[in-house]
């Protein structure tokens, strides 16, 4: 199960991008996590200052 970014909470600070060990997060007006690349390690969720990242349900 991959993680997902809650677009309404994400402030596009970029903290998660540098922490993702597999480069699954793409930058833009709205950040996205590619579920085909995400290894569900949770590193991005742990560093997100707004709590915008959580496992997909």
Instruction: Give the integer mean of the pLDDT values.
Output: 94
The secondary-structure element order is: EHEEHE
Oligomer: single chain
| Helix share, percent | 10-25%
Strand order of the largest sheet: 1-4
Radius of gyration: 10 Å
Number of strands: 4
CATH topology: Alpha-Beta Plaits
Structural notes for this entry:
The chain is of the alpha+beta class. It has a single domain, classed as Alpha-Beta Plaits, CATH 3.30.70.20. The chain is 18% helix and 18% strand. The protein has two helices and four strands; from the N terminus they run E-H-E-E-H-E. The strands form two sheets. The chain has a two-stranded antiparallel sheet. It has a two-stranded antiparallel ribbon with strand order 2-3. Strand 2 and strand 3 form a beta hairpin. The chain is globular, with a radius of gyration of 10 Å.
Structure characteristics:
single chain, 57 residues, alpha+beta, Alpha-Beta Plaits, two-stranded antiparallel sheet, 2 helices, 4 strands
Task: Please write out the topology.
Layout: E1 3-5, H1 15-19, E2 25-26, E3 32-33, H2 43-47, E4 53-55
Describe the structure concisely:
With 57 residues, the chain is of the alpha+beta class. The chain contains two helices and four strands.
């Amino acid at each position: 199960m991959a993680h997902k970014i809650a677009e309404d909470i994400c402030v596009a600070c970029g903290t998660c991008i540098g922490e993702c060990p597999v480069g699954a997060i793409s930058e833009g007006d709205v950040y996205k996590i590619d579920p085909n690349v995400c290894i569900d390690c949770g590193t991005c969720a742990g560093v997100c200052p707004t709590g915008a990242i959580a496992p997909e349900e």
